[in-house]
Design brief:
The structure is a single chain. This protein is mostly helical. It has helices at 2-25, 29-42, 47-59, 63-76, 81-94, 97-114, 118-149, 153-170, 173-190. Helix 2 packs antiparallel against helix 3 and helix 3 packs parallel to helix 5 (81-94). The radius of gyration is 21 Å and the shape is elongated.
Length: 191
């Protein structure tokens, strides 16, 4: 009976993963996440399924779930580089630049040491650029807050312009929100 159940499970698993590729191809990420729930129920220690569900959460801007799934995938397979990439992107979207940098750096380390292809080199460079942008954004944020405390509001305007450029180029919601906070603080100081 156990062998029969195992065969049935494998058939459902093959069917589920095949349908997942179709669902993701159609960009129905919520449905894909539900299908990954089924695949994970069948194979709960599969880091790839968990990490792919994290990708679905990223696509629908559910960053908390993306972080949870990514970190669970890392716990299942600490060398699975995509889990670090997805965790880093989710942390960045949540505004946790420190954890984002940690995860993105780990992705770069693993990717550089495990897979040397043009596509992976481009992905590593992309993540290094995101790390650089997060660093620059944090520095500008601290600089603008300091200028506001010193009542040097003219300096804040040019700083927030650069912050907005970074936010737009990264496409990360928290960066835009941070620009608005700085702008509000700036304008409230002028009154």
């Amino acid at each position: 009976i156990a062998i029969k159940d195992l065969r049935a499970q494998r058939e459902v698993e093959k069917d589920t993963t095949g349908k997942l590729k179709t669902t993701i191809g159609k960009k129905d990420y919520l449905l894909a996440a539900k299908k990954y729930d089924l695949a994970i129920a069948l194979e709960p220690n599969n880091a790839i399924y968990v990490c792919n569900r994290a990708a679905c959460w990223l696509m629908v801007n559910n960053y908390e779930k993306a972080v949870n799934d990514s970190n669970f995938a890392i716990a299942l397979d600490p060398l699975y580089q995509r889990a670090y990439e997805r965790a880093g992107k989710a942390y960045l979207a949540l505004g946790n630049t420190s954890k984002a940098r940690t995860h993105l750096r780990r992705f770069c380390e693993l990717a550089s040491s495990m897979e040397d292809t043009p596509k992976m080199r481009a992905k590593v460079q992309e993540m290094k650029n995101e790390i650089r942008k997060a660093d620059e954004f944090d520095q500008l944020l601290q600089k603008s807050l300091k200028r506001i405390q010193q009542h040097k509001f003219v300096d804040v305007s040019s700083i927030t312009k650069r912050m907005k450029q970074i936010a737009i180029s990264s496409g990360v919601p928290f960066l835009v929100d941070a620009c608005l906070v700085i702008a509000k603080a700036y304008w409230s100081g002028i009154d």
